[in-house]
DNA sequence: GTTGAAACACCCTCAAT
DNA sequence: ATTGAGGGTGTTTCAAC
C-alpha cells in the first residue's frame, strides 16, 4: 500500500493510461473501452481532475519533423554550493529553451539537463551558453544514439 | 537553416508552443492569441497535423498524486553486444512499466533508462527485475533529488 | 488572408430508474 | 451504478469576400 489519501481502482487506472496515450479520445469512446456509461465515466474524470491527478493535456510533437534530431543528457558538476549561485544557475538553464528537463541529482554529478537540439552544432552552441561565466567544475554530454522509447504512461503505485 | 522540406513561421511556432503547454485550448482562443481568424487557425493546425508535426495530445498526470515520488535514471553497461541479447534486453525493459524512457547512449555506458517509482523500495524491486539473468556488467542509479522542470515545449530549430 | 453560417460531434447537467 | 434528453460549446466545412 502507500500513503495517499485517495485511491484508484482498475478502471481509474485504465482511464489514466488511455488518456496518457491519447487525450483526444471522446468520453463516449473512453466509456466504451472501460465498460462504463458515458455519464459514469464523466464522473470519474471529474473526480480524477479534482484530486489533482489529471492536469490537462499537452500536444505531442514530433521532434524530428521540427528538425530536432539529437537528444543529449548534460551532466554538470559545480564548484559552488551557495543559494545565490544556484539561483543564478537555474535562471541560466531556464533561459535555454533547448533544455526540456532539469534535475538536481545525487552521486558524482550535481545536475542533469536533457536537451533536444538540431545536431552537434546545436550542442556546441548550447554548451557555450551554458558554461559562460558559471565557473562549472565539469560538464559532459551523454548523447542518445537511439531513443528506444519515451513518454510512456505512468501507473499508480 | 536546416534540411527540412516544410518550414514553419512565427505563428506556427507560437501555435505549437501554446498547444504543448495546453492542448485543451479551443481554436477560438488559439486563433485569438496568435492574431488569426478561427478559420485560418484551423487550416494551420490541419497543415501541421498533415506534416506529422502535431501528433495528437496526451493527458498530463501528476506523478506525486499517484504516489510516484521518486525519479531515477538508471545507467547500464552490458557485457554482450550481439543482436539476440539486445532484443532480449529491450523486451525486458519494455515489460517494466516503471520505466518511462529508454535510450541507447554513447560514452562509458551503453543504455540509460528513466524510471518513476514510489520510493526506494520500488527501486530495489525494479533493479532486481532489471538485472535478473541479463548478465549486465554494471548498473547504477542516478537519483533525482529535485525535478526542477520537465516536459518543456520544443521549438523548431 | 477574412466573416458568417450550417451540420455535426461532444461536453455537461439533470431527471428518472 | 444506468439511460435518455436538452442546451451550450467546439469543430469542421462551405460560400462569399
From TrEMBL, chains A, B:
A single GO cellular-component term on record: cytosol
Domain HTH asnC-type span(s) in chain numbering: 8-69
SMART domains recorded: HTH_ASNC (SM00344)
Transmembrane segments: none
Any one Gene Ontology BP term: response to amino acid
Record GO terms (molecular function): sequence-specific DNA binding
Top-level lineage group: Bacteria
InterPro entries: ArsR-like_HTH, AsnC-type_HTH_dom, Dimeric_a/b-barrel, Tscrpt_reg_AsnC-like, Tscrpt_reg_AsnC/Lrp_C, Tscrpt_reg_HTH_AsnC-type_CS, WH-like_DNA-bd_sf, WH_DNA-bd_sf
Annotated Gene3D superfamilies: 3.30.70.920, Winged helix-like DNA-binding domain superfamily/Winged helix DNA-binding domain
UniProt-listed PROSITE patterns: HTH_ASNC_1 (PS00519), HTH_ASNC_2 (PS50956)
Alphabetically ordered keywords of this record: DNA-binding, Transcription, Transcription regulation
Protein name (Swiss-Prot/TrEMBL): Lrp/AsnC family transcriptional regulator
UniProt organism field: Paracoccus lutimaris
Amino acid at each position: 500500500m502507500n500513503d495517499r489519501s485517495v485511491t484508484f481502482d482498475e478502471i481509474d487506472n485504465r482511464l489514466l493510461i488511455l488518456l496518457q496515450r491519447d487525450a483526444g479520445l471522446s468520453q463516449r469512446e473512453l466509456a466504451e473501452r472501460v465498460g462504463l456509461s458515458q455519464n459514469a465515466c464523466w464522473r470519474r474524470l471529474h473526480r480524477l481532475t479534482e484530486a489533482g491527478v489529471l492536469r490537462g493535456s499537452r500536444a505531442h510533437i514530433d521532434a524530428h519533423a521540427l528538425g530536432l534530431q539529437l537528444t543529449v543528457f548534460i551532466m554538470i558538476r559545480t564548484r559552488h554550493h551557495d543559494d545565490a549561485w544556484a539561483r543564478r544557475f537555474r535562471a541560466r538553464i531556464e533561459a535555454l529553451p533547448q533544455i526540456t528537463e532539469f534535475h538536481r541529482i545525487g552521486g558524482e554529478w550535481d545536475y542533469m539537463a536533457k536537451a533536444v537540439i538540431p545536431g552537434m552544432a546545436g550542442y556546441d552552441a548550447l554548451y557555450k551558453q551554458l558554461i559562460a561565466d558559471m565557473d562549472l567544475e565539469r560538464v559532459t554530454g551523454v548523447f542518445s544514439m537511439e531513443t528506444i522509447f519515451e513518454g510512456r504512461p505512468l501507473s499508480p503505485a
